[in-house]
């Protein structure tokens, strides 16, 4: 009688004596979510401020995690084997996060034995993260996989698919959620963030490895944009030690910790901070592309100097792109620009001279500079002033003070507060140019905020622009609250012409994390960037239709990866991106100007017409900032680039 009652209880209470493996299952979501489980057993392998991590009995199935986070303030010790009850929960801290399987409201915690040891999973040996893709949902989204447009078309959590940990990164990290793992021989792939966290890969197969030690976004073995699932972020150590300061390429002692989804990514929370074994010691060399006495050869630089400038240099073709958290240019204390920089910079002159010195000593003062993010003369003060004459002459003077070229400059003032960015700042693109090498093609007026420039005959068999410089289709809705492209027609001492378009497309602000629930991840404002590229392509086509042999360079901050091919298609049908056609070509893993959340990548691009491509181009990305020894030494979070083109 007693026995059959016990049998009934067992049969009608499927949650009795559940295992961690059963709770985790082989899908993203636990089948037990919301259910109470009793007599759960496991051994404490890590303790955090909000709970502890249990290791259950190992299982053969690699899809099934046997680790579990218990949200609890109970006092337990590492190595305690426990029996406990509680409720299974799929916790999500923000809407786009993947949920984290947890046991909440634990009760009846019984320590059955102490001082047990659990061997961590040795990543790269026991289990290895895949390369290439994060989610099967990305692969079916389109030919650009996780960069496909449209994005946000499916959710990981909507399905109940079995994990495929050998193929997809999210599945892999989910399959070891809550477990104790070791990253052997970790290599940092960028600087620490503000919380001391940093991204690594360990001793396992990786793709996109660059010469410094980072992982660059490249195409994976199937020809899809690589989402680098083999990298992982190391969080704050659980024992309150402090993570070391790292840079791209720093090697570290092995890291043992638990896998936990938080803040949009799968983290490894280390039991204790690792130590640095070695750090790269070589500083980034300056460009070897320098201005030439040959009037045919033009160098161009591009450097984003935070809310300040993006340079396309005119010398031998330098393309510099640099996101600066502080202004790059040494500003005089009374300069109006300093006001606009007060908010986002520590006004240390050492930082500012670092930037001017980069332009002079690392970019070698290119002949033409594409600048972006030039604020007006009153900085961010919202007072109706739109002229940037003072800002630009301060920049020019700063470069001259550092021994650089005596640049001339041109821009077109926007209408007050119509181009996005900080209110009152009126950021715009501008060109600096070396008047010894280049001049604007004469005969056309400077454009204004609302008049579109057009390709016109110059009356003597050549072509120029109706406004020079002038804005491209500035009243087109594609440019609402965004920067209108600045086009210019240049000529050398010998009369050879070069057309340029300086871009700053709408930024990716509000995008979702790559490891979130939404697939493909939300690529914010991509529809706007697509329209903007189409407008620029129409302009480029109008030039090439009149003058198929025209030398045209379109470049700047595109705020988009070249692997988002649907955005660039109209432009790449007409022009070639310089990295792939340069002599020598820049190897795909060395094409970067920026490191964001572990991924070494390129948002700044330069495209050239067939005439320019046919004469040969050189391009170099100068890693003055991303190769800095530590974050304090960098003048920006973007690296500049230098390009050399021939116009005859
Ligand atoms: C993403 O898709 C979800 C579900 O369709 C929707 O609720 C959400 O608003 C979308 N987000 C964006 C930014 O488009
Ligand atoms: C998920 O799939 C498993 C089998 O793989 C099945 O037992 C379970 O009922 C499914 N759950 C849901 C919510 O569809
Ligand atoms: C790593 O790559 C090598 C060579 O391609 C391959 O033989 C090996 O199986 C890979 N290892 C893992 C764990 O994928
Ligand atoms: C310049 O860099 C800053 C800081 O990273 C960034 O906020 C801004 O969008 C960048 N601008 C351009 C034009 O690249
Ligand atoms: C800015 O400089 C240009 C020429 O360099 C000049 O035409 C214009 O009047 C100046 N604007 C102001 C507000 O000083
Ligand atoms: C731009 O120039 C055109 C033609 O001269 C003029 O009609 C228009 O008012 C100007 N717009 C601005 C904003 O100055």
From TrEMBL:
Domain of life of the native organism: Eukaryota
Single GO MF descriptor: catalytic activity
Keywords: Signal
Occurrences of domain Endonuclease/exonuclease/phosphatase (ranges): 351-638
UniProt-listed Pfam families: Exo_endo_phos
Annotated signal peptide: 1-17
Xref: InterPro entries: Endo/exonu/phosph_ase_sf, Endo/exonuclease/phosphatase
Entry-linked PANTHER family: ENDONUCLEASE/EXONUCLEASE/PHOSPHATASE FAMILY PROTEIN (AFU_ORTHOLOGUE AFUA_3G09210), ENDONUCLEASE_EXONUCLEASE_PHOSPHATASE FAMILY PROTEIN (AFU_ORTHOLOGUE AFUA_3G09210)
Protein name in UniProt: Endonuclease/exonuclease/phosphatase domain-containing protein
Taxonomic lineage from the root: Eukaryota, Fungi, Dikarya, Basidiomycota, Agaricomycotina
